[in-house]
Amino acid sequence: MLTKPFKDISKCSSNRKMVGTKVGFIGLGAMGSGIALNLLKCGCSLVVNDINRNTAGPHLEAGAVWADSPREVAEASEVIFTSLPGPREVEDVALGKQGILEGVSPEKVYFDLSTISPMAIRRIHNMFLGKGVHVFDAPVSTRGVPGDKLAAIWVGGDKAIYEKYKHVLDVMADKPIYIGPIGAGSVAKLVHNCSTFMIYQALAETFTMGVKAGLDPLTLWKAVREGGAGRRRTFDALAVRLLPSPLCPPGFALKLAMKDAALAVEVGRELKVPMRLANLTLEEFTEAFNRGWGDCDYDSFMFLQEERSGVRVRAPRKKIQEVLENDE
Fold first, then answer.
1. Which one of 38, 125, 160, 186 has the largest count of C-beta atoms within 10 Å of its C-beta?
2. Which of 11, 159, 175, 189 is catalytic?
């Protein structure tokens, strides 16, 4: 049963196109919560659902309506979003009992913001086609600041329908990017994430070599930042990861990174594309996960390379900040 909102969201008119748009949002976790709140700020009529109702408190206070199931969300919405941990959860919410498929009707639109495999979203897409519903894979990239506008949304699906609802995506991210047919958004996200993971793996290897060869970690980091790649700030990620400590509070949990790397490897296998570094990275993630680091930040796998090398790659946070603040 739908729960009435605490206040009338229609009074919010910060975005004229959004006012009156009936949006459903399922999944109010670390990622979805901020996205849903930003949608409310821009004037839509929002219906929400999560496996844990307590997560919806801020949204209900801001004017959202609670629905008891994904089916009720779909029944009450024109456009539906899910932001969920992985393929199993997406399939359960989309296709399961009291799921989205049971509540949709022709011409409704469903965007999945989760990171899942292109094969999985294509299966879901094909199931929804039978009811005349447009499905999009639309995985996201964050700025790393909770509640901030997303950096990008990579979208796969029908381009004409995408253009019709792009104004909704615009309030969620700086860069909604149409990639191609269904599944294309997921491929782009996996390329982005798995490339990032592999770059950090390479940096862990080279920096342990450099430090073991006698260089000070901070001096080495400052030096490589002035090279060709360094001037593109490729190495700035080290300022928040390897140099201070890989076990900083998780921005992206290892267990989720392992899932994304596994999905990228699966796509490579499906397409018969060799993924040597991706497989190696997945092996590193799996070993780190088996150490009990699944809920730590994904860069905790760097400890493994340090153990093998017998060296620690560290620099004081204060000194790192001084380097960043003194950039010309």
1. 186
2. 189
